[in-house]
Amino acid sequence: MPTPSQRGLLMPQSPIRKLAPLADKAKARGVQVYHLNIGQPDLKTPQTGLDALKHIDRTILEYSPSDGYKSLRMKMLNYYSRFNIDVSVDDIIVTAGGSEAVQFAFMSCLDPGDEIIVPEPAYANYTAFAIAAGAVVKPVVSSIEEGFALPPVSEFEKLITPKTKGILICNPNNPTGYLYTRKEMNQIRDLVKKYDLYLFSDEVYREFCYTGAPYISAFHLDGIENNVILIDSVSKRYSECGIRIGALVCKNKTVHESVIKFCQARLSPPLIGQIVAEASMDTPQEYLDETYNEYVERRKFLIDGLNRIPGVYSPIPMGAFYTVAKLPIDDSDKFCAWLLSDFDYEGQTVMMAPASGFYTSREYGRNEVRIAYILDKEKLRKALIVLEKALEVYPGRVDK
């Protein structure tokens, strides 16, 4: 029998989705599962987008241009200008979600064996797409004790070799919720300049910054405009994960031409998704303000609740809608599976993502979980009760 490719064998399982079969079985038993494992907002999609979907009057659902409809890209251009991101409409390529943007960026910028430096914990699919491109992730590990702040520049420089081609950041960060400071972003810029590296910057959560400090885009950094590959998506800001519309933004013409060839090979981004996304760009500011304020309230509620549970610690996330929490457990993979297969409290349980899946080395994250605060406060309240009750009886509890 033929065997899978080495690439396929090396592809990691998603820490966010790999426990889904256990969740399905729990639901089949009648257990209420509170999904804190995935960044799928429970807030309604903007009415402007839903109306556009309902009133599509086309008689043919045709291919779109490989780089996406210009009308959508023009609206994206206006959107970026509100954040002082100075790009042209021809710098914007519409992709099938932010994930495809990451994939095409890696395929266009990295050769097999090339290395990228990634602060960890990091979004697990970065590693998956690096493996697909034949590239190697070199992690710089941040710590929960330091609030997941950027590790010292010296730690980055230790990893730089002739094979190093780029640095990847997510700002605000998934999974930690950390928001990089101006000083940290300038340090990254200086490294990119010094070694002439790409800076892959995932900025899909820019709407959700909870500090008084301004949001710093990679395109705000002077002198590296042709090194920056910006990754974006409408999924989170408009609660439109399912329409699969993202963007790759790049001023480097050579890279842009390479990305376009990958876009042509997959023909076009989703037609229906582009229609919905374009209409959603006209969403009233009131929607965005209400969404922001709701996440601010949920963040405080969740973090306060977590830190009241004996043995649990979570730093305060400054962006996105995730936090990484340390639990008094032996193994986060086992604990998250046990919650779904062996535990319920009053017919309820919690689904979380084991943080081990957000690190390259499995020695990290063994007592950490990523939690997405994408449920309303009443559901978060119930989930926190379930988590506390579970920790009281978990066979692998570890108290130091």
Outline:
By secondary structure, the chain is of the alpha/beta class.
Outline the fold blueprint.
Elements: H1 6-10, H2 20-28, E1 32-35, H3 47-54, H4 70-81, E2 92-95, H5 97-109, E3 115-120, H6 124-133, E4 136-141, H7 153-157, E5 164-170, H8 182-195, E6 198-202, E7 228-233, E8 246-250, H9 253-265, H10 271-280, H11 285-308, E9 322-326, H12 332-341, E10 348-351, E11 353-354, E12 368-372, H13 377-393
Parallel strand pairs: 1-10, 3-4, 3-5, 5-6, 6-7
Antiparallel strand pairs: 2-8, 7-8, 9-12, 11-12
Helix pairs in contact: 3-10, 4-10, 5-6, 5-9, 11-13
Radius of gyration: 21 Å
The residue-averaged pLDDT reads 96
Per DSSP, the total helix count is 13
First-last Cα distance: 49 Å
Strand fraction equals 5-15%
Question: Given the helix and strand composition, which structural class is it?
Answer: alpha/beta
Shape: globular
Query: Segments where pLDDT lies below 50 for 5+ residues?
Result: none
SSE pattern, N- to C-terminal: HHEHHEHEHEHEHEEEHHHEHEEEH
Report what the structure shows.
This protein is an alpha/beta fold. 38% of the residues lie in helices and 15% in strands. It is built from 13 helices and twelve strands. It has helices at 6-10, 20-28, 47-54, 70-81, 97-109, 124-133, 153-157, 182-195, 253-265, 271-280, 285-308, 332-341, 377-393; strands at residues 32-35, 92-95, 115-120, 136-141, 164-170, 198-202, 228-233, 246-250, 322-326, 348-351, 353-354, 368-372. The strands form three sheets. The chain has a seven-stranded mixed beta sheet, with helices on both faces. A three-stranded antiparallel beta sheet has the order 9-12-11, with helices on one face. A two-stranded parallel sheet has the order 1-10. Helix 3 (47-54) crosses helix 10. The model has no long low-confidence stretch (mean pLDDT 96).
